[in-house]
């Protein structure tokens, strides 16, 4: 029966992470010739090329990318095993892995996930942030227990998953006091021709926000577009432009970025969903998140919507 040479796998993993055999050899305290020979032997054993050379750079092939994903999981589990062996408490605290789409406001994400930190049976919270598509791919192979996003499960992805509405918040336009002084006037007319920071194309609220501008006959000057909500607020806090934030977290945004609320957009809301492979929630951490959602414009009572794959 064929077996996997884990030493070869680790050498491949290290080279892929380092970007070159020379850098990996320094980290492993081996000669480049030795590592090159081990990689060659590993490729011959697997029957696939793991790298291709582009100029002076080594680029991981498509087959190598597949193997790299498994290697990441294998060595992450190995590190976790060592943690468990050296920490008795960790053995009693299974990980709860949640992916958070970068379009979800960080303050909102914290409010939703915080109940998992006070469970009677503790879990070890592992947060992964990124674009929605890669997070859903990780969810589909059970590398994540839940994905928190600003939209339900998109129909274009062939993933069997279920969308659970966790929250809904109205939107408030915010700006620095200095910017407000420059563009004084009643809301929302003060936004006309004013610099504005727009959510990126991957953010669900972008289209309804643009439609609201059109309905109000507003022509703000779009000075930047951001998929990451935290980066957008950082630019807003620096005075680069007006921007939107969920009304539920306005006090947090004011305190963190030194900005002021300009006005709330009537009829426009931002929703937050928990996407899981469970139709009926059973994981204790996910149940705690769903149970702790609150109304009052911040987080509406949980309502579940199915999306079959």
From TrEMBL:
It holds the Pfam family LysR_substrate. One of its GO terms (molecular function) is DNA-binding transcription factor activity. Coiled coil: none annotated. InterPro entries: LysR_HTH_N (IPR000847), LysR_subst-bd (IPR005119), WH-like_DNA-bd_sf (IPR036388), WH_DNA-bd_sf (IPR036390). The keyword Repeat does not apply. Keywords: Activator, DNA-binding, Transcription, Transcription regulation. Residues 4-61 form the HTH lysR-type domain. GO terms for biological process: regulation of DNA-templated transcription initiation. Belongs to the LysR transcriptional regulatory family. NCBIfam families: PRK11062.1 (NF008284). This is Transcriptional activator NhaR. It comes from Denitromonas halophila. The gene is nhaR.
């Amino acid at each position: 029966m064929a077996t996997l040479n884990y030493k070869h796998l680790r050498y491949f993993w290290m080279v892929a992470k380092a970007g070159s055999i020379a850098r990996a050899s320094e980290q492993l305290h081996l000669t480049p010739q030795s590592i090159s020979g081990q990689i060659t032997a590993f490729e011959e054993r697997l029957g696939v090329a793991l790298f291709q050379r582009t100029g002076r750079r080594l680029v991981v092939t498509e087959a190598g990318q597949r193997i790299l994903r498994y290697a990441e999981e294998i060595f992450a589990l190995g590190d976790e095993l060592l943690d468990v062996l050296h920490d008795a408490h960790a053995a009693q605290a299974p990980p709860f892995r949640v992916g958070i789409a970068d379009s979800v406001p960080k303050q909102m994400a914290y409010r939703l996930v915080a109940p998992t930190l006070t469970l009677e049976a503790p879990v070890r919270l592992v947060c992964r942030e990124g674009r929605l598509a890669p997070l859903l791919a990780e969810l589909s192979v059970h590398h994540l227990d839940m994905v928190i996003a600003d939209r339900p499960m998109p129909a274009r992805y062939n993933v069997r998953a279920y969308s659970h509405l966790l929250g809904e918040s109205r939107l408030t336009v915010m700006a620095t006091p200095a910017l407000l002084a420059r563009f004084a006037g009643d809301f929302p007319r003060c936004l006309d021709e004013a610099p504005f920071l727009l959510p990126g194309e991957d953010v669900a609220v972008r289209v309804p926000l643009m439609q609201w501008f059109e309905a109000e006959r507003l022509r703000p000057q779009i000075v930047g577009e951001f998929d990451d909500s935290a980066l957008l607020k950082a630019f807003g806090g620096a005075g680069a432009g007006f921007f939107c934030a969920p009304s539920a977290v306005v006090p947090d945004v004011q305190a963190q970025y030194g900005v002021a609320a300009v006005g709330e957009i009537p009829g426009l809301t931002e929703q937050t969903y928990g996407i899981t492979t469970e139709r009926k929630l059973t994981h204790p951490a996910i149940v705690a998140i769903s149970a702790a959602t609150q109304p009052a414009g911040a987080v509406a009572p949980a309502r579940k919507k199915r999306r079959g794959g």
